[in-house]
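job 3f2a | input accepted
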Amino acid sequence: MKNTRSKHSPSFKAKVALAAVREQETVPQLSKRYGVHANQIYKWKSQFLEQAAAVFERNAIAVDSSSREEELLKKIGELTVERDFLANGLERRR
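job 3f2a | predicted structure (94 res):
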């Protein structure tokens, strides 16, 4: 029996989960084929199905993040102008 845990890459997990979703082979067959416990395959399959909708939502998130980025850049510009204005005012008093 193997005592050390093995870390699987996300691409490997996706490949196994996709094979489980296709149901061309049973989970025990996939378990033997990929050398992963059947319970782990069931977990990866459920994660895969739960997060499948998120793949198509990423475009909306990217649009939101770009508008947020524009807002933050605008605010940085305003704060920079204020800082420079106040710094120049302090230099005159000295």
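job 3f2a | The chain has a mean pLDDT of 86.
job 3f2a | closed
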